Amino acid sequence: MTDLVVEVREADAEDALRSLAGWLRADESLDGQLRSRVAPAAPAPADHMGTGFDVLELVLGSSLSTAALVVSLLQWQLSRRRAPALVLSRGDVRVELTPEAARDDETLRRVMAALERGEGGAADGDGAS
User: Which of 61, 76, 85, 129 could disulfide-pair with 23, CB 3.0 to 4.6 Å?
Assistant: First the structure.
């Protein structure tokens, strides 16, 4: 079961996703409460070899909060020389978090609340609703 899916809006998304997965594994605040897997966004058609890896699928342990995970994702995002936008999906909720939105406390509160619910309408990082 996947709890959260992360996409990176960057030209070399696969390398960025692998970097993010390594960052999350090394984050002591997550205390080993997270499993991750770099995966294709959708299965390849039967007559194709397949696509690159497009998303990072995350499974949260029972004691790990979405907020703690989002903080770690934002730290990775802002540590990049050219911080890419992150698209976070949980259930029916899909949020694009730009570097600018990551610096806005009110937007972050709305993003975290939307992801905690993991249901309902979509939100976006420039004015999550």
Answer: 76
Look at residue 128 and tell me whether its pLDDT is greater than 60: no
Q: Mean per-residue pLDDT for 105-111? A: 89
What is the pTM (predicted TM-score) of this model? 0.77
Q: pLDDT-derived band of residue 53, with 50, 70 and 90 as boundaries?
A: low
Alpha carbons 51 and 125: distance in angstroms, whole number: 27
Inter-CA distances, 63 with 22, 33, 34, 67, Å? 21, 7, 10, 12
**CB-CB contact of 53 with 14 (8 Å):** yes
* Torsion angle of C-alpha atoms 2, 126, 21, 26, degrees rounded to 10: -110
